[in-house]
Amino acid sequence: MRGATNGNSTSLWMDTATVPVFPALVGARETQVCVIGAGIAGLTAAYLLAREDQDVIVVDALGIGAGETGRSAAHFFPPDEWYHGIEHRFGRAQARLVAGSYAHALQMVDAIVRTEDIACELEHVDGYLIARDARDGPALERECDAAVRAGVRAELVAGVPGLGFDTGPAVRYPGQAQFHPLKYLDGLARAFVRRGGRIHGASHVRRIRGDHRRQIVSLDHGEIRARDVVVATHTPFNDRVVMHTKQAGHRTYAIGLRVPRGTLPHLLLWDLGHPYHYVRLAFAGDGDEVLVVGGADHRTGQDAHPAHRYDALERWARERFPMARELAWRWSGEVMEPSDGLAFLGRNPMDDDSVYLITGDSGNGMTHCTIGAMLVTDLIMERPNPWSALYDPARKPVHGLAEFASAQANVAARYGDWLRGGEVDSVRAIPPGEGAVLREGLRRVAVYRDPGGGLHALSARCTHLGCAVHWNGAEQSWDCPCHASRFDLEGNVLHGPAAAPLAKIALAPGDAPPPQDGHGGARRGVR
Question: Which of 7, 99, 143, 264 lies most in the core, judged by the most C-beta atoms within 10 Å?
Answer without folding.
Answer: 7
